[in-house]
Amino acid sequence: MAYVISDECISCGSCESECPATAISEGDGKYVIDAAKCTDCGSCADVCPVDAPAKE
After folding, report:
1. Phi first, then psi: what are they for 20, rounded to 5°?
2. What is the span of the domain harbouring residue 10?
């Protein structure tokens, strides 16, 4: 099950550099996760200051 980034995202970018699958990119107003690339590792959730990434 892939992670998704909620509207709580503050666009700090901390998750993008932590993703080993390069599944995270900057979107319009928040970061987005490519579900096809997400390996469900949780690295993004571990570094997010506002708990925006969550399992879909």
Report:
1. -70, -20
2. 3-55
CA gap 24, 44 in Å, rounded: 9
Residue 39 has pLDDT above 90, yes or no: yes
pTM of the model: 0.91
- Tell me the sheet residues that pair with 5: 53
What are the tens digits of pLDDT across the range 17-32?
Answer: 999 999 999 999 999 9
d(CA 1, CA 38): 8
The CATH number assigned to the domain holding 33 equals 3.30.70.20
What total of structural domains would you count in the chain?
A: 1
